Amino acid sequence: MILLFLKRLAQAIPSLIGVVVVTFILTRALPGDPAAYFAGAAATKEAVEEIRKKLGLDQSMPKQFLDYIVNLAQGDWGTSLTTGQSVAHEVMTRLPASLELTLAGLLLATVVAIPLGVAAATRRDTWVDHLARIIATTGVSLPVFFTGLLFVYLFYFILGWAPAPMGRLDVYLSAPKAITGFYLIDSLLTGEGAVFMASLKQLLLPALTIALFVLAPITRMTRAAMLGALSSDFVRTARAMGLSDTTVVYRYALRNAMLPILTTLGMVFSFLLGANVLVEKVFAWPGIGSYAIESLVASDYAPVQGFVLTMAVLYVFLNLVLDILYSLLDPRVRIQS
Fold first, then answer.
1. Which residue did the predictor score with more confidence, 170 or 58?
2. What gap in Å lies between CA 218 and CA 260, rounded to an integer?
3. Is 335 helix (H, G, I), strand (E, B) or coil?
4. Where are the alpha helices (DSSP H) in 56-182?
5. Gap between the Cα atoms of 135 and 9, Å rounded
6. Can you tell me the distance from the alpha carbon of 275 to that of 234, in angstroms, rounded to the nearest whole number?
7. pLDDT band at 30 (very low <50, low <70, confident <90, very high)
8. Which helix (H) or strand (E) covers residue 163, if one does?
């Protein structure tokens, strides 16, 4: 297991280096001049040049890249020009918010999608199967910003069941002591029940918006993987031995179908973490996605580079976790590795 982990980690190092190089080049190739943006429309040419010199943009591209690598090796990700804060500090502050939202949405989708996919596979071409297709198709067909706005209008404006979409916590409450960065977990650890309930209410609608969107790929993959497992020889043998349907479906078929389902969950999670910016905007969620978009619009290089590097590290870590889960579910994966 340890050798597998080290092997996958060594394979990921060239990918991370490639991400750093490509991100640096692409950010410099973006249209717009950061110096002109921050100098303002009324700034003189001399003022713009002075700002460009302070930012180091007057240096050659290789010199800028070398300085970036040296700073990165020292743990310095640069400073955001829009906020004036360290990029590393901003990322570490905003990343838990995005992780909490993404994990909550993925958990809600998984709790519904896997049983729904199993039911659709075991009752193929029945009303259950058709209902699963309708639910999955509806969720993926609606844009997330439309679903989010619809939920806000219905549950907040019309029914008054949900709190105002104003971030992670009500403005009249203070955030719990930062332990993990997840408000739900931190409020439980510090025994703040009111903060827990308030943060849960704030989290519910954006998490539900995400869950409805990713319901389709998880349901479809579960159904397809279960159909393949149920038609295999070992399932027919288990049925011939007189085992109950529950044992055959959940102990044998579902366990063998979990590998493609886990792969889909990993892909969906990595996609959502950087792509849920529309949900963050609708619900004023202070996540890393909205931070990256705002920096990109302002041609603020350092936060964009920090965002991409963070996503790459998380993607590598996610793949390592998936490899370990693969080997636990199917020992053949461990042997082949």
1. 170
2. 10
3. helix
4. 61-73, 87-122, 127-141, 144-151
5. 39
6. 40
7. low
8. none
Instruction: Give the closest residue to 313 by CA, choosing from 274, 260, 255.
Output: 274
Output the furthest CA–CA distance in the chain (Å, rounded): 85
User: What does pTM read for this prediction?
Assistant: 0.81
- C-alpha to C-alpha distance for 228 and 247, rounded to whole angstroms: 17
Task: Name the residue among 229, 205, 187 with its Cα closest to residue 279.
Answer: 205
- Cα–Cα nearest to 195, from 164, 177, 166, 173: 173
Q: What is the dihedral of CA 147, 151, 152, 155, to 10 degrees?
A: 180
Q: Note the pLDDT of residue 104.
A: 92
> What is the sign, positive or negative, of the torsion defined by CA atoms of 293, 294, 298, 303?
negative
- Coil, helix or strand at residue 86: strand
* Residues β-bridged to residue 125: none
Q: How many CB atoms lie under 10 A from the CB of residue 216?
A: 21
Match 């397809």 to its residue by tokens: 224
pLDDT at 335: 47
3-state SS assignment for residue 79: strand
Give the chain's domains with CATH numbers.
Answer: 95-286 (1.10.3720)
State both tokens at 73: 């090796």
Q: Report residue 53 as tokens.
A: 């010199």
Q: For 134-146, how does the pLDDT look when each residue is reduced to its tens digit (9 = 90+)?
A: 887 777 777 888 8
pLDDT at 111: 92
Pick from 227, 207, 212: nearest CA to 97: 207
